[in-house]
What does this fold into?
Amino acid sequence: MSQEILVIGGGAAGFFTAINIKEKHPSYKVTILEKTSNTLSKVKVSGGGRCNVTNARTEPGALIKYYPRGSKRLYKPFERFSTANMRQWLEKRGVQTKSEDDQRVFPITNDSQTIINCFENEINRLGILINHQCAVKKIEKKKRWHVYTDHQEFKSDQIVYATGASPSSWKILSELGLEITNIVPSLFTFNIDDPRIKDLPGTVFPNAKVRISGTKMQEEGPVLITHWGLSGPAILKLSALGAHLLAKKKYAFLIQLNLSQQSAESLAKIFDELKASSPKKKLKNHKIDGIPNRYWEHLLNMLNGSEILWGQMNKRLQNQLIEQLTQATFSVTGKSPFKEEFVTAGGVDLKEINFNTMETIRFPGLFLAGEVLDIDALTGGFNFQACWTEGWIISESI
Ligand SMILES: Cc1cc2nc3c(=O)[nH]c(=O)nc-3n(C[C@H](O)[C@H](O)[C@H](O)COP(=O)(O)OP(=O)(O)OC[C@H]3O[C@@H](n4cnc5c(N)ncnc54)[C@H](O)[C@@H]3O)c2cc1C
It folds into this structure.
């Protein structure tokens, strides 16, 4: 009798797992149960519609640094199926990928539909069945696994649970007895209503330092002014690293920014040199390294300094400028989703999982992959890579 494998969830992790199981075990009947009428809907919108499918970093030691939750547990799985393996997997199926300067990897077409087409072709080629509008309501272990939807009951010896960040699915798993950690959003931008950054959306500080006041959390990197506040790699990284802490603060906290790449002392020195070398030049006509002109002019306007000459700058104005450029405090009053990628921090507690197989330790025959687990990453293709690696391991263990 052929084995029947049920894969619950027709998203990134569910599709990749189903395809690899069926390819390794052609005699198995593999069926995907998907709640909605659409599959791979997050892949479609991922990476701003381009699908940042993985990352160009290949070493497990380098990769795990990008996972605020799950990093240690992913080291060995990445040794077995890493980012390079995923690129080969796609290439073998006719999808060429390219890596960009920041190491993010995309299909060469810059279109997420390329990844969807590849997966769907594989599903059809291998004869994997998909049941749409088939929301799983309960799973139960008797002699076999019983999977209940509104209209049907399925039975299987082994099931893969890949329902993503879905509160109702976490409830099903918690009713089964699995431990679920606290669930909060990750990868978000900071809402800030402040005249210093109003009307300047699109302005980028290429290498700012951001610190969350009252904590040890700080990050360096590009910071972008948006219509609602601040975004950019340094902000997104802080939002992921501080996901649980910032949720506890109800997204109301202070940040300190050094926008200038200089300490207050070295900026004071630069200002003193300019006062001596260009006393007749207006402040606004001298660019400050790392500070976009738009911001420099806006700051000078706010401090009534735009018509002042370097030779006329008094100590008070100098101190105000130095403070604003090296330790400006901003009040964050909320968060907004980052449009290119957002994920959930929290999920099935990793102590429930054997990472050699991705099977739950207490419920043999139940395998988990994707965002349903308490694993999440920074932006850069790492969230999908976790899905691919976990799915691959399941296909090897089933
Ligand atoms: C806008 C956006 C952009 C992103 N861009 C990127 C990116 O470029 N690169 C990257 O690495 N990551 C990106 N991510 C994160 C990435 O999409 C997720 O990490 C990934 O999709 C998780 O895959 P998954 O299969 O676990 O969950 P999902 O892709 O969410 O799939 C879960 C599936 O399960 C189904 N389901 C849920 N409950 C049930 C149930 N009870 N019964 C049956 N089916 C059910 C859902 O309908 C869904 O189809 C992005 C996320 C968002 C929101």
Summary: The first helix runs from residue 12 to 24. Residues 188-336 form one domain. The chain has a mean pLDDT of 96.
